[in-house]
Write a structure and sequence with these properties.
Number of strands: 5
Largest sheet: 5 strands, antiparallel
Strand content: 15-25%
Number of domains: 1
Number of helices: 5
Helix content: 25-40%
Structural class: alpha+beta
Shape: globular
Order of helices and strands: HHHHEEEEEH
Radius of gyration: 16 Å
Amino acid sequence: MLSPHDRSQSLHPANLRTSQTQFDWIHNTNTFQRLRNLLTLDENWDGYGASRFLRPQVSRAFDLYSDIYNYYLSRSTNFSQLSPFIAPCSDGAILFEWAGRRFPSRELEIFVPSTMESPLEYLKCTDDAEEEGSFSSEGVIALLDWLFATES
């Protein structure tokens, strides 16, 4: 079994080697693999001038991923069934999204911005309200508590 330090090092973006031609962005919804393959996207990956993703930003997204994964472990939540959908955004942000059939009454989007100086951002939606804002990495626990709460 890997120690937490060894696992952290193996997840570090500098240690991830992938090829853009090997990854199917349309059909592969695996959270970890989508994050890992952000570094394979070249300049203008969307055909509309989007910039490539840089290692510090992807590393920040992996830190958020780790916080989310640890949250799930601490609450015995099934990560594989309730993991966020990861998507690159044309504005340079990295999207973590919980929506759809698995979350019928609440949706949560978290954005890792393209600049390291900017805070993480969120959008929370229910049937009758939306709330958006920014937070530091410690705030992800409160957002996930909100997402998994059973009361409105």
